[in-house]
Amino acid sequence: MSVIVYTKAGFCGQCKATETALDRAGIVYEPRLLEDQPESVIEDFKTRIGLTAPIVITDTEAGSWAGFRPDLISALAAA
Questions:
Q1: What is the layout of strands, in order, in the sheet containing 65-66?
Q2: How is residue 24 annotated by DSSP?
Q3: pLDDT by residue (tens digit) across 19-68?
Q4: What pTM was estimated for this model as a whole?
Q5: Are 73 and 1 in contact (CB under 8 A)?
């Protein structure tokens, strides 16, 4: 399973909640900063996923999403 979590620099409540939930579920993920991504990547996220941080990209049936989604984190843990 591949999971990448794009977060904002500084404090982001939804980002921190997502990382904490993934950690508690034992899901290994690669953290990346949104600010370090090229504009083309950001525009792709806006079009396909949404504007809310964090952006979580997976290669599982849970798919990819924006924001804190405990339901989808639970689906990842079950996969």
A1: 30-33, 3-7, 55-58, 65-66
A2: H
A3: 999 999 999 999 999 999 999 999 999 999 988 999 999 998 878 999 99
A4: 0.91
A5: no
User: Which of these, 73, 78, 66, 61, lies nearest to 22 by C-alpha position?
Assistant: 73
Locate tokens 């792709």: which residue?
A: 44
Q: What is the largest CA-CA distance in the chain?
A: 34
Domains defined for the chain, CATH in brackets? 3-78 (3.40.30.10)
Helices 70-78 and 13-24: angle between axes, nearest 10 degrees: 20
Q: How many CB atoms lie within 10 A of CB 30?
A: 10
In contact, 15 and 34? CB cutoff 8 Å: no
Q: What distance in Å separates the CA atoms of residue 22 and residue 65, rounded to the nearest whole number?
A: 14
